[in-house]
Structure formats: structure tokens, C-alpha cells
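Hey,
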Amino acid sequence: MITRTEALELTARIRSTAEQLWSLLLEARDRSTNVSAVGTNSELRKVLGETAGMRAAREQMQTAARYPELCLTIVGESGTGKEQVAEAIHSLAASRGRYLPVSLAALPDHMMEVELFGCEAKEGRERRAGLFELAGSGTLFFSELSEFPPQLHAKLIQALETRSFRRLGGEVDIPLQARVIAATRRRSATPDYAELFECLGAFTILLPALRDRVPDIELISGHVLADVASRTGKSLLGLSDAALEVLLRHHWPGNVRELEIVLTEAAAEASSAARLPGTTLSAEEIRSAIREHGMPSDSDASNETASGTFPTSGPVSEPLRSLERRMITDAWRTSGRNLSAAARSLGLPRTTLRDRLKKYGLR
């Protein structure tokens, strides 16, 4: 016969063991999901960089990929690789649907509704499926959110919140299966766009400017030159110490895209001459390529300072609140209730995550 105290202690140990087993099962499930995803490791490796900002971005990409109903915004200056990140998230999610990038600037405002939502046959107009239908359970990527016409904000927000939409002139709700990812150079402070940015920016991934992650320049340069050699069949060129110094000192207003262009052009010029295998690009060759193909002036700087953020103020819709709770619960359990690891995977400050855990009764 065991005493009541012993019974309570045994119950507590059983509960503790069960919680540990549950955490291990969740972790194994996530590992299985990642392994089964198409090209998980290769997709993440395309997003180059070992500085803290880029490591955080890759962790947030993996988090986002696990939640196909999660809308997100990728914030970064021109040339930081926002579309590459969106494509990688689509691939990491192993979606069966299509990846459809949408250049909002290329679509006339009066055609935007039909292009996105489709239209019913009416008054000589043919029935047409829009991009939301064509994407299926895939991904729709908006290249610059600030170019989305204000007159369609309400319809887009309703579609995202209800996960359904209607074709122009239609009377039947169509389920929205696609994930929506938006990119922007900066969060807009314009009141007309505040609600749209709040809806799509519930979870954000910040891509730092290249000038803010100088240690990554050598790594990226090596990959670019290797890619050039592979595509052209020419000898692999390296960088002299002086050439690398020029790259490290340049401001790179065009970010990674500018670096790729400069190195590609410098390698092409060097390859046109009879260069021996194993030779390196000189400082003057890099300077010349920057003068010819680089950007002379700074791009608009982003004032963003945090990524992976959930809304901290203002109204939050019930579906978003439910998704936030699920993401936080999953991250908390998968990390083995490690506050730092869970905060890192969500891209949240520890203090913010601690408040959310208390809010949802998880701690």
C-alpha cells in the first residue's frame, strides 16, 4: 500500500514523463516534415549568409513553411532576395500547388480584380479563373505590397480572413487554398495601407541589407564565382586579397543583386582574356566592374529593426489569434520548453514570447 504523498509524487513523475515524450514526438514529427519536404536543405542553402540576421531569417522560413495558412510579409531593400525567400518557403512547404509571382506594378489597376479573383461570364465577358484559383494550394507572391490598389484592400483582407472569395460578378464563395506572401521595401506608414499591412504582416521576415552583413560578402562571392564557372564552362576565378578588400569596402546600395552583377561581369571580362586556371580577380578589375555595372547612389534604406514579429497592438482577428496561439504552442513544445530556442524559431524577442506564453496559459 502506498501513501497519498507517494501516489502524488508518482503521478507527477508520470505527467512529467508524458510531457517529455509528447515534446519528443512533436520534434520527431517536425523532423519528418522537414525531411519529406522537397529540397529542404538545398532551398535553405540558397539563402546565403552566416551572420545572425540571415540565420534568423532561415529559421523563420522553416517556421513559416509549417503553416500553409499563414500570411507573411518579407521586408527588405531592393536586391536583398525577397522573391528567392518566398520561393524557398513554397518549396519547404512541399506544396502541391503552383508558385505564382505577381508583379503588381505590371498590372493596370482596372484589371487587378479580374486577374486576382477571376470573373463570371456576364455581358459578353468570358468566365475566367483568377490567380487565387490558379495557385490552388500553392503560393501567391506579391512583389511590392505598397503597389496594391487601395480600392481592393477590403476585398483582399476579407478573402484572407475568411479564406474564401468570389469572382467578379459571382455569387458563390470559393475556398482560398493558397498561401499569400507579400514583399515590401519597408512597412508603409500611410493610413490607407495600415490595415492591409497589419493583415499580411502578422508575421514578417526581415532581410538585412548587404552593408549590414559585411562578413557574408566573401561567402556570397565564392558562390557567385563558382556558379559563373559552372554555367560558362570557364575556369573558376578567385579573389585576390586586394579585390576582396574592395568588395568589403563598397556600400552595395543594390545589395546582393548588385554584388552578383558586378562579380559576373568582372568574371566575364577576365574570362575573355587568356587567364590561367587558378588565377584571381584583381582589385582594379573589381573597381572597373563596379564603375560600369554597380549602382552609383544609395537605395532607400529600410528602417525595420525586427523580424518574425506578431502584431503587438491593435485589433487581431480570431483566425489570426488562433494561428498565433498554435504557432507559439508548437514552438514551445518542440523546443522542449526552452524560451530562447522557441523565441529564436519564431523570430520574437524573449520578453514578447514570455508575455504570449502567459497570455495563453502555457507558462
